[in-house]
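Bug report (template v2)

What were you trying to do?
Predict the complex of my protein with ISE.

What happened?
Run completed; filing so the output is reviewed.

Input:
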Amino acid sequence: MNIRVGVIGVGNIGTAHATNLAKAVSGSSVSVLYDFDQKRAQELAIELGAKAVATFQEVIDSPEVDAILIASPDKFHKEQVIAAMKSGKPILCEKPLTVTEADAEEILAAEVSLGKRLVQMGFMRRFDPGYIQLKSEFNDDGIGAPLIIHNIHRNTFAAYGLNTEGTLTNSVVHEFDINRWLLDEEIKSISVMAGKASPLTPDGQKDPVLVIMESESGVLITVEAFMNDQYGYEVSCSVSGVKGSADLGEGSFVTSSKKFSRGSEIPELWLTRFNEAYRIQLQAWINSIREGKLPVGSSIWDGYAATVLANKAVEAYRTGKKVEITLKAKPGIYS
Ligand code: ISE
């Protein structure tokens, strides 16, 4: 069975997803595309043998669409996910679920009222072979139970313009999700420190920032988020456990030795670093649809939790105080 996907939003990540679905994922094709930039949608549609339409609702309603992928800017997710849910078609929504906690709660309530999970969140790091291997170390044959985790998340430049709150809701949201997943537990408190800002950041913005969290069992988690590092895209995660430590560094990048130098290339954007994770994530989504199974990976509940953490991080950043986290009771469909 071939799953015909309709894609809403074909900027950087939407184009990457659509291209993967059409060319690299088995059992899927792209049938309908929408973007605010109609020219861009039209060009991609021609390349992928799809049809470009003038509104996102046409993607949702099209009889040629079996499943919907939402990759529009963050602030449009709520309206589009809720509209897509009404069609009953499976959905993959790019991260973050939404920018605000109130919107995340609304989407959560909408899925819960359906009585079943329809949406997979695009937190692709859960499919990254590096993160999977890192997590597999957390046992007695590996490094034992984690005690402290240090994350680094650097961008060459802030893709959507730098705004310190946006760093937390759009970028560090990955660490909110992946650390919950690594530990299989919730986060209980969060603090944010902004120190000396790089002179190359726009006026008034703080970059880098340091996020410090504590999990329910007391594991300490730090995140350095640096959005204008000037030299490349880099994500790392180092974990110290009871019996050892494990470091996720530059993924599978090759170190080469050339005349009088040794080193590896640093990608400019996340699309290169997480290329494989994106493909595996989409394949898992398509497989779950073809097999009539529940969505895999991160759920709307996880998307809600990550957005709550991002909102509390913004509060911690603004007030300079440590903020305690309380989530709603977890609805049964996510157990
Ligand atoms: C971007 O939106 C992404 O989702 C990337 O994965 C992330 O690393 C980057 O910081 C974000 O701006």
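What did the reviewer find?
The longest strand covers residues 146-154. The CA atoms of residues 97 and 303 lie 5 Å apart.
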